[in-house]
Amino acid sequence: MRGHDIQVALTGVPKLKITANTTAEEAGAAFPQLAPFNQGGIFVGRYLGQPPWECHPHGDELLHVLNGEIDLTVLTEEGPVRITVEAGSVFVVPQGLWHRPVARVMTTLLSATPQPSEVSFAEDPRYSE
Prior knowledge:
Layout: H1 6-10, E1 16-17, H2 24-30, E2 33-37, E3 40-49, E4 53-55, E5 61-67, E6 69-76, E7 79-86, E8 90-93, E9 99-114, E10 118-120
Parallel strand pairs: 1-3
Antiparallel strand pairs: 2-3, 3-9, 4-10, 5-8, 5-9, 6-7, 6-9
């Protein structure tokens, strides 16, 4: 057991600028796992841009914005829910809901993310095959 210094953990970790050409390997390198957690892990990284949609069928995901902010869209049965999560705030994405955390400025994000995760590049992944 040990604590993790987030600034030390980010030393040498590339800042991710998401583009249409960003690979899964680049995204993984930008968000190293600090520790295992339940059926997933605690991850931290810095990024800018619009990632693909993601969904976690095996648990809730906790997002903690350390600096910057994210414009988070969560797709619910009632329709999309949009919220801005600012530095110092947390948001819990309920299990099984598609979501996308867009960073319009370079943002440092800590997450407790269940694995495996599903990813979709569809406009609305609830209706893609």
